[in-house]
Amino acid sequence: MARRAKQFVAGFTEDPDLFLVLGEKARSSGFKGIDCTMPYPVHGFEESYGLKWSWVGVAAFVALLTGWAAGFGMQAWMMNIDYPINIGGKPHIAWPSFVPVIFECGILFAALTTVASLIIAGKLRPNPFAHVVNPRLTDDLFSIIIPFHNDEERLKAEEFLKAQKLSAVEVHDFDLLDPRTVKGC
Amino acid sequence: MSAVLQESPLSTDVRVPSVTKDVLAPMSARPGLLWIVAFSLAVVAFSIGAISVAHQLAHGIGILGINNTVGWGVYITDFVFWVGIGHAGTLISAILFLFRQKWRTAINRAAEAMTIFAVCCAGLFPLLHIGRNWYAYWLIPYPNKRNLWVNFNSPLLWDVFAVSTYATTSAIFWYVGLIPDLATVRDRAKGIKKMIFAVASLGWKGTGQTWVHYERAYAQFAWLATPLVLSVHSIVSFDFAVSNLPGWHTTIFPPYFVAGAVFSGFGMVITLLVVARSTMNLQHLITVDHLDLCNKVILATSWIVSLAYLTEIFVAWYSNSYYERFQFMDRAFGDYAWAFWTMMFCNCAAPQVFWFRWARRNLVFMFIISIFVNIGMWFERFNIFVISLSSDFIPTNWNYYVPTFFDWATTIGSFGMFFILFLLFCRVLPVIAVAEIKSVLPDPVGNFTDKKETH
Question: Can you tell me the mean pLDDT for B98-112?
Answer without folding.
Answer: 87
